[in-house]
């Protein structure tokens, strides 16, 4: 298919662009296969380059012969284009609509994008499972890397290589896979170096209504327990939801069959509820009524902060079991691809200082989200403005990022990256020139040959000029476990995402710059003082008097 | 002392409000001024001091198996939950505290017995520190349009006004007196703020006694005079901060508001800020939400909404914004409410903060509170419940002003020289009665009480300790510290002020403070600047006099090198240690951990404050000491090559 077929009008002059907190720009609007471009063709004004895939929905309005297209983006920005001429306007609108809803992955921009920068380190090779396993091997010999899933047949959503207990062979794994949702047998998520406890994740066990059991499953997870020790199973669903799952063939680990495990049920919502919550929250943030009661009641009704609290609490609980109870933990919900990953990845942020570095956090996203099979394509297909009925869309990853931001706010000096990095990941998860977030799982990415045909986001991020922007100037490595507060008073609305386009951030940006300046000036002085000190020392050793005491 | 029925109770338990299973056992002492809880186990290191004057209520609850619970709520929002073994003891403590915390006479207030080790001469100088006349001089007054009037010098015209007031040059004493007779409590229009740049002014008064039709020629002349003192503007605003309905209701009582037909060239505007009773109930409701033990997000947000608190804060700020914009555009404003000492004080002072960068400096805020609150007669005795008076007169009016400033700080982090801690400290001492500044309701009362002769001033205390109260982000030449602030008052720009209302719930606050971090860096930077100078000098010296006196220089250099080894590490250590204490995430699921009482890293924390309680008259009254926790550096030592501090990071982590 040629993009040209979809572009009814490639170019319109005299288009006026309105953006929040920016002066209006008049210029020429161009549509290309992947971008909407508005340029005033003057040197000093900023151009607009908008990826079609970033467009969530559009609205048309007509006043006389001037039509307006209101473009609502997945990054929650809303812009307006005033287009002279009814026909042009309709053409532009329908072209944008068609281009922003292309179904085929292989037509997405990452397949066409050629990097304008030098790739120092290919991000596709930065976080390979075998490298992560080498780190594990240096700490323990109780685990092995299994390639039972090398052709993605045992579990479609797992990577080729997964870490499992050393004494569990591949045949056992295959049997366990038949007992777990989507074949997601328990695999290692995190090894806590301090006390050797582990966190595993899986899909729900397929016990069904008649309480099916699987000896191999029991054997597998028991293999992770120290003699005489008990473990915790954290089921991210309420007991009721878990009970109901039995009727559809799912279920949970019964006390009888798993006597060494204690089960805890939490209440993290499923994806359709979360999508609804996002839509309501964004709607509340856009409310112009200026009534405090209305704002607070809408904020409350969106339940967004409730989800944040529940997810964070569950992650803290998992971390607490591992670090404080000295117990191993198995986490699962239903599929094991959403709430499970929120919990396992946040628990690692809390427990493992390594995950709080830029590289470490990328590794975490890579391990616990991309390779662990979070279906990004399904979940991030639409954002809060979509008119179409949500099917599989859900802000599961955004909620994770929001939770990280909450911890970052509480421990502002313990993260090597800053808020911008989290916002960047949010944007790229929804629309990107990079291939990182394409597809639903490792199998998809292999099928699409993403590493060969697209550029990795990490290739771009891990360059000095980008890293500088994303690095937290306050960072001081902190090897402690960090326990966040989950009190409602401690959890804030993530303004950097949800109010980003509703209020000017100028004064807050200035404060950030001021902070950077204070720190930079300090470093500069340190360097000067050190070099003077060396000079002084040199002068003194040159001094004959000093050499003869 | 006659009110203390029981000076000492042993085996008292102090319960953690958020997780009652954590508790400390110790001895509770009642003194003339404080309740002191001394923990027995920690070897006397942990003490909690509560000033009687800060106690807001004492509730004795039904005795349980483990003792008789006594709940003490403080005006600075601290809540202490004691459990006393014997019911009779609890009863005695309860009755003693009730009496001690509700003084009936001014002489009983703490400020009259608070005697820090300060020389009398020094004490007198304290009161000269904030000088309102100097502030009016700063505004360029008196000038050809505005003069100082002594019409009220014996408090005869208005007994709640100060002796010295600025009024329009053309307003003769008969006009002032006439106008005062037409205003509640004689509070005629007087100047609050004057803009040197465009001659616009903020004046304040009480409501006119207009009833349904009354007029007063002098009052009309008075407003005319205010209008004329701003020759560039042909109209002025009269802002009635009340909701229209309240103002109309006042007409039946012979009070009311200005009729636009009777006053030439005024634009009249209602603002809709609710009265003291609404505000009191609103804060009460909000505090109930803050007190909830483990509220869900919905409990919290619904409670916050139904309290209406943020709505009221928004109304005050909205009015402040209206006034500041008018003045910035060169239009004078007369502001009043009913008596002109509550809402009027709020919005005039908020407008001043928005308009004039001076009031965003440390000294400026003191001057502003002195001007619009203390001198213009805000009724601190009643509003802050300093003495036993009508409970219906209690209202958190000044809390709302401080909160408006805090909300502005959140929007303009570089605009304020002072920090959140200053606002909280000022709040604390408005209620503590430790300093004389907020004693009495007006200048006349304060003179009668001889406050300036007998007590100490908060302002000079704050100034002496200003290092703690200065925001590292403030720069005098920063764009935010210039000119008018234009805040957004969209509802989502208002936040819940956790730092004040949950001040003592240590676990809720960020565990690392950006501000403390930056302050440490700035101190270091300052040291580096000094070193840089001294190194430069020495190099120059060395180069010049290679032959002479080398040894001395070498020694100096060594001293300098060790100098920056003195790491300014006090900032973050405690917070990091706190970081290692998980909250109750389980909802009681895991019964055992992590509250094992012996775990050194799960201290029961109310508020880590300065450890030197007695010497420090500041906030630490009623706080807890974390002296058990070593200061752990979160910050690497200064320089890479020469002076790596052996006690830095590694040591901090091994303590984990």
TrEMBL record, chain A:
One of its GO terms (cellular component) is ruffle membrane. The keyword Ion transport does not apply. One of its GO terms (biological process) is phosphatidylinositol dephosphorylation. It is found in: Cell projection, Ruffle membrane; Cytoplasm, Perinuclear region; Endoplasmic reticulum. The keyword Cytoplasm applies. PROSITE patterns: PPASE_MYOTUBULARIN. Residues 123-498 form the Myotubularin phosphatase domain. Pfam families: Myotub-related, PH-GRAM_MTMR6-like. It is a peripheral membrane protein. Gene3D superfamilies: Pleckstrin-homology domain (PH domain)/Phosphotyrosine-binding domain (PTB). Keywords: Acetylation, Cell membrane, Cell projection, Coiled coil, Cytoplasm, Endoplasmic reticulum, Membrane. One of its GO terms (molecular function) is protein phosphatase binding. It comes from the Eukaryota. Belongs to the protein-tyrosine phosphatase family. Non-receptor class myotubularin subfamily. This is Myotubularin-related protein 9. It comes from Fundulus heteroclitus (Killifish).
